Amino acid sequence: MTVMPIDAGGRPFTVHDLEEMPDDGRRYELIDGELIVSPAPGWAHQEAALELAVRLRQACTPEYRVLAAPFAVRHDVFNELQPDVLVARYGDLTMKNLPAAPVLAVEVMSPSSRLKDANLKKAAYARLGTPHFWLVDPDSEAPTLTAWELDGDEYQQPTHVVGDEIFHPMRPFEVKFSPADLVAGLRP
C-alpha cells in the first residue's frame, strides 16, 4: 500500500480524481485528500474476506446489508474508503456508495497493508463514527481477529481471538466463527 503525495496541481486528491484512476486491479482510496493505492490482494486475503462476508450475510438481520469490496464509503470529497467487508444500515445505502458511516468496517490485512489498516484506516473509521471495526490477519500461522467498539470518538479493544478460538459478537447482530474458519479453504 502506498500513500501518494498531493498531485502536481498542488491540491489534495478528491473523489472526482478517483473517478479518473485506471481500472488496473489496484484499490484507490482517499483519507483526508491523500491517495492510498493498494495492490491486488492475495489468496489468503480474498479467502478470509469472502468467507467472512458469507458468514455475516447469513447472520444479517433485515435492517442491515453486508457488502464486500469494492464498495465506496464516501464521507465527503476528500475521503473515500473501501473496507474489505462492510455492514450498513439498509436505509443509508445508495446504489453508488455509502454516504454515511458503516455500522461495521472490516479490513483484512495483507503484507503490504498491515500498518495502514491497523492505524490510518482504523483512525479514519473512528472519525467517521463507525461503531464497530474488525481487523483480520489471515497470513499468520494462527489467524487472528481483533474487534474494536467505538467509545466516544476512540476505539476500545474488547476482543482479540486467535486460531480456533470462537468469536461471538452480539453487535451489530449475532454471529459466531473462529479466525481459523475464515481461512479453512486454503487447506485441502
UniProtKB/TrEMBL annotation:
Pfam families: Uma2. It comes from the Bacteria. Keywords: Endonuclease, Hydrolase, Nuclease. Gene3D superfamilies: tt1808, chain A. One of its GO terms (molecular function) is endonuclease activity. SUPFAM superfamilies: Restriction endonuclease-like. Residues 17-176 form the Putative restriction endonuclease domain. InterPro entries: Nuclease_put_TT1808, Restrct_endonuc-II-like, Uma2. This is Uma2 family endonuclease.
